[in-house]
Specification:
By secondary structure, this protein is of the alpha/beta class. The protein has two domains: 2-118 and 187-252, Rossmann fold (3-Layer(aba) Sandwich), CATH 3.40.50; 126-182, no CATH class. The chain has eleven helices and ten strands. The protein has helices spanning 37-43, 68-82, 93-100, 126-135, 139-151, 155-162, 166-173, 176-184, 191-195, 211-223, 241-252; strands at 2-5, 11-18, 22-26, 48-52, 86-90, 106-110, 201-206, 227-232, 234-235, 238-239. The strands form two sheets. Strands 1-2-4-3-5-6-7-8 form an eight-stranded mixed sheet, with helices on both faces. Helix 2 packs across helix 3 and helix 5 crosses helix 7. The model has no long low-confidence stretch (mean pLDDT 97).
Length: 255
C-alpha cells in the first residue's frame, strides 16, 4: 500500500500491481479498493493498475467538511503520483471521473447509474435521509436505505446480511453513501458535462443488467463527443474481470 496527500491534506491510500501504462480504478458507491482486487489482478498483465480508496473508505482519510470537489482533487493527486494515462470508473464513481477534469488520455465508465426512462424511481428524500441516518450515528440505517430502496435488494436479504461479519465493514463506509449521492446530483444524464469531455471514452454495460442501465450507458456514450457504448459478459451491474481486462486492453492500448 502507498499513500499520496491530496490538496486539502487528506491521505489517499492505493495499491499498485502489474506493469505497463498506468490505469487508475475509481470505485463505485459502498465499496473500497478491496472490491476491485480481482479486476486489478486481471488487468495487471497489460497495465500498471492503481487501485485506490476514495476518501472515507479503507485506508484513506476523510477530512471534513466533505465537498464533491475534494474527490476530484484526490483523483488528480493519485494521477500525479502514479503518472496514470488511463482511468476506469465504476457505477457512481463515474461522476467523480467525469467531473474531475483530470487529463487522462482515455477513460472508461462501467454502468453509470443515471436514471433514464424505465429506471426505478429514486427513493423519496434519498440524500436527506442518508444525511439524517449518518448525523444520528446510525450507519446501518443508511446502508439499509441504499441496499433496499436504491438498489432494490429484498429487506429480508439485508436483514440476513446484518447478522454476518461483513455488516460491520459495510457500516464503516455507509457515511460515504452521502458522498456518492452528492456526486450523482439529480441522477439525470449530465448531457452538458458529457458534451464538454473532448477525449475518447468507452461506456460499458453488462449484458445481464436491466434495460434501463444499458440505456443509461448508451445515452452516456451518445452525449460524449468521442464516446462508444459496448455490452459484455457479466452479472447484474458487473462485467466479468477477464472480460473487462480484455476489453480495456483493446481499447486503451489501441494505436
Amino acid at each position: 500500500m502507498e499513500k499520496v496527500v491530496s490538496k486539502d491534506g487528506t491521505e489517499i491510500a492505493y495499491d499498485v500491481t502489474g506493469s505497463g501504462p498506468a490505469l487508475v480504478l475509481v470505485a463505485g458507491a459502498f465499496t473500497d479498493r478491496s472490491r476491485y482486487v480481482q479486476d486489478a489482478e486481471a488487468l495487471a498483465s497489460a497495465f500498471t493498475v492503481v487501485n485506490y480508496d476514495r476518501r472515507g473508505r479503507g485506508d484513506s482519510g476523510d477530512t471534513l467538511p466533505y465537498a464533491v470537489e475534494r474527490e476530484w482533487e484526490d483523483l488528480a493527486a493519485v494521477r500525479d503520483a502514479t503518472g496514470a494515462r488511463f482511468a476506469c470508473a465504476y457505477s457512481s464513481g463515474s461522476m467523480v471521473l467525469l467531473q474531475s477534469g483530470v487529463p487522462f488520455e482515455k477513460l472508461a465508465v462501467v454502468e453509470p447509474p443515471f436514471r433514464v426512462e424505465g429506471a426505478p424511481p429514486a427513493p423519496e428524500r434519498y440524500l436527506e435521509r442518508l444525511q439524517e441516518f449518518v448525523a444520528a450515528g446510525n450507519p446501518g440505517g443508511a446502508a439499509e436505505l441504499f441496499m433496499v430502496e436504491a438498489v432494490g435488494q429484498p429487506k429480508e436479504v439485508v436483514d440476513q446480511i446484518r447478522q454476518t461479519p461483513m455488516w460491520a465493514g459495510l457500516e464503516a463506509i455507509a457515511h460515504t453513501l452521502v458522498y456518492d449521492a452528492l456526486q450523482m446530483g439529480d441522477s439525470a444524464v449530465p448531457a452538458a458535462l458529457l458534451s464538454s469531455i473532448d477525449i475518447p471514452a468507452l461506456a460499458l454495460y453488462s449484458n445481464a443488467s436491466p434495460d434501463w442501465l444499458k440505456n443509461s450507458v448508451r445515452q452516456t456514450a451518445d452525449a460524449l463527443p468521442h464516446g462508444t457504448a459496448e455490452g459484455h459478459e457479466g452479472t447484474f451491474h458487473t462485467i466479468a474481470s477477464e472480460t473487462l481486462a480484455r476489453v480495456l486492453a483493446g481499447y486503451f492500448l489501441a494505436a
